[in-house]
């Protein structure tokens, strides 16, 4: 199995597109980082953090005076005012801008790009063998089809994890170079008390929750690519569902069946911010649904590949 994975890995890196994906991930981190540093420098020259904090207080007070917001929104505004006043009283600048943690939190939203590139690999790693005719040579080896398909799936996941590591490492390095070491303190309101926020723990939790969409997108693209032998169909269908999944869930929200669709649960970050797509769902329930669909996707992929006639 290890030799099969090694062979797939070498074939992957012989393609120029693979190197282009890595380069794009790096560029999409460095580019926004430079722009953020530029605008941060301009803002620092124009206004101090204390003036900015006072402006925030005034803005929230203006919004509190309006009747256009719900009680939950007004409670949020009151909490933000209390936090800003606490900062001013204790001379505690925010870590919101110009810090490694805030920059890595920003680049964490770019994990969708990592997922996209991994989906492209997962969709084409099987279908390309059929389109080029190399699948016949591959199956002449004294190795079971199950092992061949497993090696391809593992290679796709390993590549995705590699891009994830690149994203994290490059983000940390760029953040350190552009913004220096950690400065300021991030605060939050917990049970009526203002406490220091565990920024790194929250960031790690966000990365972990992002794995739901990452895994399911790869498995679905791998399924479509294996069954229909079309990488373009697999990529297009997976991206279509990724971008329209929220609308599909919203359209079906009046029906109970929506609770059992994997699109409802793939974005686990909904449990991070509390904005659940469907009321009543829980993390264990979502993980169970995703596990069931993952098994279904894998079973269909393997059955299709094992039984397909490739002699023609």
TrEMBL record:
Pfam family, one: ABC2_membrane_2
Keywords for this protein: Membrane, Transmembrane, Transmembrane helix
Chain segments annotated as transmembrane: 20-39, 110-132, 153-179, 204-225, 232-253, 285-305
Key word Transmembrane present: yes
Superkingdom field: Bacteria
Keyword Nucleotide-binding in record: no
Protein name from the UniProt record: ABC transporter permease
The species this protein was found in: Lysinibacillus agricola
């Amino acid at each position: 199995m290890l030799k099969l994975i090694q062979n797939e890995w070498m074939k992957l890196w012989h393609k120029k597109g693979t190197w282009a994906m890595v380069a794009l991930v790096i560029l999409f981190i460095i580019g926004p980082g430079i722009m953020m540093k530029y605008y941060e420098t301009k803002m620092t020259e124009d206004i101090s953090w204390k003036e900015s904090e006072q402006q925030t207080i005034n803005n929230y007070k203006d919004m509190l005076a309006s009747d256009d917001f719900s009680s939950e929104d007004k409670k949020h505004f009151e909490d933000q005012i209390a936090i800003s006043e606490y900062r001013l009283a204790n001379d505690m600048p925010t870590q919101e801008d110009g810090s490694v943690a805030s920059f890595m939190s920003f680049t964490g939203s770019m994990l969708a790009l990592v997922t996209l590139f991994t989906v492209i690999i997962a969709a084409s790693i099987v279908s390309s063998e059929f389109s080029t005719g190399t699948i016949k040579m591959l199956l002449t080896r004294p190795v079971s089809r199950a092992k061949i398909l497993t090696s391809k799936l593992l290679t796709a996941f390993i590549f995705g994890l590699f891009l994830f590591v690149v994203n994290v490492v490059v983000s940390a390095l760029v953040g350190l170079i552009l913004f220096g070491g950690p400065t300021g303190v991030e605060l939050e309101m917990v049970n009526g008390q203002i406490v220091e926020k565990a920024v790194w723990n929250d960031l790690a939790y966000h990365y972990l929750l992002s794995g739901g969409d990452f895994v399911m997108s790869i498995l679905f693209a791998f399924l479509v690519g294996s069954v229909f032998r079309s990488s373009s169909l697999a990529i297009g269908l997976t991206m279509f569902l990724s971008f329209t999944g929220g609308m599909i869930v919203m359209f079906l929200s009046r029906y109970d069946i929506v609770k059992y669709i994997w699109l409802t649960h793939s974005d686990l970050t909904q449990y991070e911010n509390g904005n659940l797509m469907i009321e009543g769902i829980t993390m264990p329930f979502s993980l169970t649904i995703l596990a069931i669909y993952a098994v279904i996707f894998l079973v269909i992929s393997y059955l299709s590949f094992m039984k397909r006639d490739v002699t023609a």
